[in-house]
Amino acid sequence: MIKYKDTQYQCSMELSLALIGGKWKSLILWYLGENTMRFSELRRMLPKITQKMLTQQLRALEENGLVNRVIYTQVPPKVEYSLTDEGKSLLPIFETLIKWGVNHANSDQPSDQND
């Protein structure tokens, strides 16, 4: 059992997936790995995400220490998002997942068939 922020997880994999799993979080982290972005830039990169969902996902990533949010006091207000060091530590894992996805997509058949 692993405890993180008052929640018990069966194993570290469950915790990891709770932090970065879902449809949008890993994509948000990947795009922020390329550079610091504003909310509207992230929306353009993820055209199918709603404004509400992007806001929720960014807040969760920020609360879990994976994303920085910087507010600039100017008119109009400006907010930028970037990865924390903890968030940056996920980038090599995402690169491995991307390679796996490409290899899987390019394979003629699954490597483990149950006939």
UniProtKB/TrEMBL annotation:
Keyword Transcription tagged: yes
Residue span(s) of domain HTH hxlR-type: 11-109
Keywords: DNA-binding, Transcription, Transcription regulation
Gene Ontology molecular function: DNA binding
A Pfam family per the record: HxlR
Name assigned to this protein: HxlR family transcriptional regulator
Organism: Marinisporobacter balticus
Origin organism lineage: Bacteria, Bacillati, Bacillota, Clostridia, Peptostreptococcales
